[in-house]
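Sequence only, no structure available. Ideas?
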Amino acid sequence: MKKYFVFLLCIFMLPVCHAETLLIESESFEELGGWSIDQQYMDQMGSPVLLAHGLGKPVADAVTSIEFSETGAYKVWVRTREWSGYPEPDLTPGRFQLLINGKKLNTTFGNKRTDWHWQSGGAASIDQKKVSLALHDLTGFNGRCDAIIFSNDPDFTPPCNDDLNSFRCKTLGLSEQPEDAGEFDLVVIGGGIAGTCASISAARLGLQVALIQDRPLLGGNNSSEVRVHLMGKIKLDPYPELGNIVKEIAPFQDKGNGAPAKFFEDEKKLQVVKNEKNIHLFLNMHANKVETKDNRVVAVVARHTRTNKLMRFSAPLFADCTGDGTIGYLAGADFRMGRESRRQTGESLAPENPDKMTMGSSVQWYTKAFDQSVSFPECPWAVQFTEESCQRLTKGDWDWETGLNMDQIYEFESIRDYGLSVVFGNWAFLKNQSKDKAKYANKNLDWVAYIAGKRESRRLMGDIVLQEQDMRTNRVYPDSFVKATWSIDLHYPHPDNTKHFPGKEFRTIARHVRSENYLIPYRCFYSRNIENLMMAGRNISVTHAALGKVRVMGTCGMMGEVVGMAASLCKKHQVNPKVVYYNHLDELTEMVQSGIEK
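Reply:
I predicted one. Tokens follow.
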């Protein structure tokens, strides 16, 4: 009896091990090291990812610390993907390791399936409750990590994609009720040139403005992340004061596309906005939910790209300056995507039958010369080139353009990745195999964009859908304000590129149709069926053909200025944007004539 009693006592004194599952979102790492936050396909992923964009040189570790409630054996999973499609796991480009308290797991991640999945890392022995984690890049070629799971629950399996968002909220303890960001007069979503100008314009006219931007910088394609120069003339007759704000935030020196970062003056744009007491700036906030009632937007909900914090923005007016028309789409606004048919629009530039073709997205790049030779690794996983197909260049400009026949929203990760693959594959060929490789020996790949410069996706429909004929005949509307000075500039796959890469082109040609400078009407800047939604930028109410003339950023910035002015009249008269045209056009015209000063 005595021995039996002691045995039972020992059992009762054993520590109780509780099932525990920890989820660590990669974007929440305390120190990102050389990894970058990539939110470009967050709507499809549910969250941003970390990207090891090192141009062939492994980036510094991303590091964070976590706490366990129990020590012992934990199974580990990492959500990742093999982005190149190369079949040899030991040579794939996005390989990385997970370090726990400086010790590497045996598993190499990012070299298995091409879809996003939970890759098993086996078991880890956790011998202390607070540990450090590190993502250790092995290649410098765009390894990616979405999240990490530790679990000591023997019955646990990682959630499939459909259940991931609910699992994320439950495991991280995220509230599904967003924090109230406050009440505003105008909420502007998208901090490119159009959205920034709309915000400044409205703020200087007395409106309380929330400006929501999903990157840490303003400027969109004109930021140092994408590096497209700001084209389109401003401050022209008959409204020479329109464009004042564009001029104020524009870089002082225009060095063209793909110039060094300093020439895009990111801090200048940020400082102008921060100096406006009526602008409430929300950087790193991705808006992906819209509340509507009676054909009106009631509120927009945005998620912070690092903390996952939700915020709700309410206002009587909203401006969709996202480029992709995201807010309009979520609100149920009428939109188009792709090319209309000639029968539908009567445009000479339209195809016989409608299709999904859009202008593509550019992954720009450039090199730097050194006094000595510089090596670059072979890239067997990238697009492969020959002496006939290679591009003998040291800089990739706007015409390195991909995805013309793909969905620029739902397939955007693949579009961007293909752009990276051709850049790396072409440069590897020039450096290592080309008959002219001596010419490239002392040149190094110095910058490659990982945020692709997008030209076209959704277009939100307004009371006027601007067409090619309007521009060719110089049709004047009563509300014609914003002068578009660009040609009708439409892009198509380059025939020489099609010869070598049919259906997978990455070089384009621009077909310019000359037309007079054209004044875009205000009625292209608000939704025809969502009563309180305005828009500025490449998602305004135009056909595919007409977009070729109006999409450059100087012109888009002036659209934003007009949207800000119209928003002030909406507040003054307590009306919707449509009513501004019908009842207050004289006032809007006077405002456009006067312009917005500092």
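Residues 361-454 form one domain.
Hope that gets you unstuck.
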